Every structure is written in structure tokens, then in C-alpha cells.
Amino acid sequence: MADSIKIDILRYRPESDKEPVWQSYDVPFTNEMSLLEALAYIKDELDPTLSYRWSCRMAICGSCGMMVNGVPKLGCKTFLRDYKNGMKVEALANFPIERDLVVDMSDFIEKLEAIKPYIINDNPRALEDGCHTQSPKQMAQYKQFSMCINCGLCYAACPQYGLDKSFTGPAALALLHRYNQDSRDAGKAERMKIVNAEEGAWGCTFVGYCSKVCPKDVDPAAAIQLGKVDSAKDYVIAMFKPGE
Fold first, then answer.
1. What are the start-end ranges of the H helices in the chain?
2. Which of 32, 39, 194, 234 is the most buried (most CB within 10 A)?
3. Minimal CA–CA distance to 51: which of 5, 105, 14, 95?
4. Confidence (pTM)
5. 23-65 residue pLDDT tens
6. Hey, which residues does 7 pair with through a beta bridge?
7. In the structure, what pLDDT confidence band is assigned to residue 2 with cuts at 50, 70 and 90?
8. Rounded Cα gap, residues 99 and 73, in angstroms
9. What is the spatial distance between Cα 217 and Cα 62, in angstroms, rounded to a whole number?
């Protein structure tokens, strides 16, 4: 087994680089070392100018998304043992690069906010009435889609978002579906305006790569297709009941 592994990182320092450039580092190899730990080694021991995001190191915060050999990955869930011939690390695709592996996710955050990712209910229960209750079946309708950690990997994998930034995108549409399926929520009509829009669910070309790269096994591609079903129902209802 090699004592070290070569990691090529696409660097971009706006104060000195006109465009991103590759830089290579030799990192001590251990079977248990994650890419995030390797980046920490590089920053601490080899090059303190390297910039990247991280927080929890447990695949919960979603901060350390990056491209590894062209595939969107979380640095904390990516291990050197799976890349014994070396790895090429870049900032997440489809997002503007701010510096090195740090990208501007403002558009992604705005899209998440736009779908109103919270319970909407104009008639909340009184305190003395106790909590809302749900059956296991009701919870199962949306639980999978609630596991998203907003890492942005699905946007980096989405060819439609890469071509058209107006597309609402996988994570936002999956989160929208999550709240629309929640029995405690009454905001579906508001959110369906986003689903029905040209840049909503119908903008998806159903490549399905978003679901493949999700580190939490959410299936945004399925959520979007279910959104299309709801959208089609809205269209049929509008045909026969134009006033509704």
C-alpha cells in the first residue's frame, strides 16, 4: 500500500488567478482518512491558503460538497481508500466559484426559500388542544423527502440546472413535495404555482442523476415526477372548473 496519495485540487484565488488552475499535493495515506481530513492536512501542513467549507464532519450539515473525479460528493463521506490512483477535486459544478472549493450558493438558498419550506396553516390548533397527530402512513408520505441536508450535490448533478438557472431544481422541488404531503400543512395551493410554472417540475428532463448522488438517499427525481402528477391534476381541474 502506498504511503501517500496524490490529490489534485482546482485552485482559484480571485486576487491572483484569472481562471482556475490545478495544484497537486501528496497526502499521507491511511485507510480511514476521508477527503475532508486530507484537505485539513493540506491546509494545516502544506498550504494554509487553501479554502473549503466544512462543519459537522458527519454528513449532516451538507457544507463540504465538492466534485471528486467529476462526481458530486461530500468530503466527509469520501474516503481515500476508494481512490488509490489519486483524485481530482473541484468546486461543486453549476455554481459560481468564490475561491478554491467554495462556491456561491445564493441562488440555491433563494430557491429553497421561495417554496415556503415550513408548515402553512391558517387555523392552528389551540395550545390546550395539544399537538397535531399523524399516523405512520401519513408520516411515510413525506418522511423520505424530509431527509435533505441542503448540500447542493443534486444541483451540481442536474444538467437542466446547469443549462437554465431559472429551473427551480431538485432539492427545492423535493422539499416542496415534502410539505405538500404533510397532513398538517394547508399551503399546497400556494406552492403548486411554483410546480406548475415552466421553470417548475416540468422543467425537469428526468435524467435522475440527482437521486443517484444524494448522500442521504432522498429521491428528488421521484418527488419531481410526483409533482408533475399533481400539476397534471391541476390542469385537468382547471379545464372543467375554470373558476377553481
1. 35-41, 106-114, 136-140, 153-157, 159-163, 170-180, 188-196, 209-213, 220-240
2. 39
3. 14
4. 0.94
5. 999 999 999 999 999 999 999 999 999 999 999 999 999 999 9
6. 25, 87
7. low
8. 18
9. 13
